[in-house]
Amino acid sequence: xxxxxxxxxxxxxxxxxxxxxxxxxxxxxxxxxxxxxxxxxxxxxxxxxxxxxxxxxxxxxxxxx
Length: 65
Known about the structure:
- This protein is mainly alpha-helical.
- The protein has helices at about 1-30, 30-40, 45-55, 60-65.
- The protein is elongated.
- The mean pLDDT is about 90.
C-alpha cells in the first residue's frame, strides 16, 4: 500500500506542476499592457475575457469556478 500511495502522490505532484506550467505560459503570452491592465486597470469581466481569449487562456476562468 505504501508504494501505491507514493505513486499516487507523485502523480498528483506531477499533475500540479503541469497545471502551474500551463498557467505560467498563459501569462507569458500576455503583453505588458495586458498584464498592467489586469493588475492596475480594474477591467470589466468582458475585458478580462477578451484578454484571456487573446492568449488562449479562457480555460483559466472555468478552472476558477
